[in-house]
# Entry
Amino acid sequence: MFKLNRVSKSVRMTALAAVASTAIAVPVLSATTASAASHPTDAQWTAVAQCESSGNWQNHDSGGNGHYGGLQFSPSSWAAAGGLKYAPRADQATKAEQIAVANTLYGMQGGGAWQCASAGGL
# Structure
């Protein structure tokens, strides 16, 4: 026959506390990870655009650098991030559409895609 060992109350309470703390920690870690993966806010993109193009969302390559729109997309970046579903060039898209494409590009390349990323805290 098997002899059952009695587990002390303090051991059971310690085990219960460990399980409970794990149950609490997992959602907290998941929430932290989810917020770290979020996109910049519209206000952050507006600050980047203010630096990149003086806030001109319909900027038509006035700097002669081959970049368009408020966030100064190159034609290849605009296309790669799905911008062509909105307009042939960024300057022909709305601010909201440019921000949507910027969020996609941000997910692909991070803030390094913009010279003025630090202006928006990216």
Summary: The first helix runs from residue 9 to 36. Helices lie at 9-36, 42-53, 75-80, 95-109. Residues 11-36 have pLDDT under 50 and may be disordered. Residues 34 and 105 are 18 Å apart (CA to CA).
